[in-house]
Structures are given as C-alpha cells and as structure tokens.
Prior knowledge:
Blueprint: H1 2-18, H2 22-29, E1 35-39, H3 46-62, E2 66-70, H4 77-84, E3 92-97, H5 99-107, E4 118-134, H6 142-151, E5 157-160, H7 166-178, E6 183-186, H8 190-198, E7 204-208, H9 209-218, E8 221-226, E9 252-260, H10 265-279, H11 282-290, H12 303-324
Parallel strand pairs: 1-2, 1-3, 5-6, 5-7
Antiparallel strand pairs: 3-9, 4-7, 4-8, 4-9
Helix pairs in contact: 3-10, 5-12
Amino acid sequence: MGISRRRFLRAAAIAGALLSPCSVAWADTYPSKRITFVVPFAPGGGLDTLARVLAEGMRPLLGQPIVIENVAGADGTIGTGRVAQAAPDGYTFVVGAWNTHVTNAAIFSLSYDVVKDFEPVALLPDAPMVLITKKSVPANNLSEFVAWLKKDAGKPSLGTAGIGSPPDLLGHLLRKQSGAEFGLVPYRGAGPALQDVVAGQIDAMFINIAAAQPHIAAGSVKALGITSEARMPITPDIPTMQEAGLRGFTFAYWAALFAPKGTPADIIQKINLAVTQTLNDPAIKKRLEAQGFEIPSRDRQSPAALAAYQKAEIEKWWPVIKASGIKPH
C-alpha cells in the first residue's frame, strides 16, 4: 500500500501542475527566450528602420533580445505567410503594413487570410511617401518632372517595392493624375530600388520619407514632393504633392504588429504594453519623428483599435485596387 500511495501522490502532484491556469504560467515565464520580428521586406526600407528602433526600445522592457529577420519577396507575402504558419507561442511576430495586411489580399492569391490568420497586436507609426529622382533627371520640381515624363513618354522608369506596394500604387496614381506614361519596375523591397535611384540606374520612385531622408540631406537624390497633407517639419523645403500641382495626392503608409492566430491573449497584451511604452518614450518619439514618422494616439494603439482600422482600410482600398485592374506578374 505504501508504494501505491506514493505513486498516487506523485500522480496527483503532476496532475495539479498540469491543471494550473495557462495564463498564469505564461504571465510568469514569458518571454523566456529571444523573440523574432519578421520584416517582410529587404533591409533599408522604412518598415525595416521602424522595426529596428521599436525592437531596440522593447528589449529592456521584455528582458529578452528581439531579432529582426528580413524575409523579402512578392510585396511582403512571403514573410507574412511565414508568420501566418508560425507557432502561436509569442515568439514570432510580423511587422506588417498597409500593403501586407490590406491591399495584397485584393491583388494576390494568398495561402493565408490577412484577417483570420493573425492576431492584431498594436498599430505602429505611419509615414508619408516622397517622390525622389536620380540627380541627373532634368527636373527640379514636380511640374518639370511631369513635363519630362510626357516628353520622353514610356522611356523613364519608376522603381517600386513590388506589385501592389505603396510605391507601385502611387505610380499608378501619378500616371492617372498627370497623364504621363512611364514604366514601373518592381523590386524585392524599397531598399534595393532606392539604391538604384541613388546609383542612377533608375529614374525615380516613391519611398518612405524615413528611408529617403539621409539621401535627400546628402544631395544624392532630388525630392520633388511629399504625400502628406502638410509639409513635414524635418523636410520643410519639400512641398506636398498637392502644393506641387496634384490635388488630392495624399497618402500615409502605416505599420502594425501582428501575431499568428491563436497567440494567447495575455501575451498579446504584454507585447502591446511593451510597444506602447516604447512609443511613449521621449527619446524614441524624438528619434522616430526626426525620421518622418508620425506616432498614432494612445487610443489607436490597442489590439481592438488596430482590428477596426484594418477592417476600415480593407473596405476603403479593396474596391480601389480591383477597379485599377492591377494584376501580379
């Protein structure tokens, strides 16, 4: 009987441990190892810049390193798809954006659902795009640039971060509003396209102001217009696209953090808290704003607010994308 009793007590202890609330266990132990933020674009773009600043600020709050993994290709669908299939254990997130979690679903045949296969975590800063050209383009403002495009109809080319990316859709919008014809060349992310504009291999592109600012300041590219509604404090000399002559040509590229579907709610809340605390840090805010990012208000940073915003953006942009006839190729 003694042996049976010992076995019973041991079994009871094991059962008791197994029946402990999972949320309590997660809260006490998470995170216990490094966390990966997948950036579904090449290094050097605005989303990559934002992810690295965010990860740096969150590390001391979470007590674990955050590794940035760039998984580029197909306008972010490859990296985003990888996270959709990742274990929902709180150790893999995607730094998604307007295209990865809104417009791509209207363009590509995806192996995942941009809403149903993810848990919204937090809305991140957004940034306008700026139209830049290589130094040798014979234009110093938007009007001169449009005139040059029309003069050499079909010959100039604008780089994009992929089919359906913000630079691509803004290129289509520029064609429509200006009446100019030019080629759109898809790259595996904004970073490689920017490198080719700086090197003079391609004529122009729309790109996140954060990524373009160092090159604008250095004089290695020309900046003709920004897609914000008002001029940016960090680039007061760059007119808005509206000021430069294209009425209604406004756009802000937003980013957000998403987890695989099924990630425990307490983990989502813990990561959300780390994000909001980081974005509220004066040093981080100053650093991001100096690079052209605009931080969303605190009430817009919750998981529920992000879910509502994503839904509204889908309802706004899917009809526009489908009407434009953009197809992957």
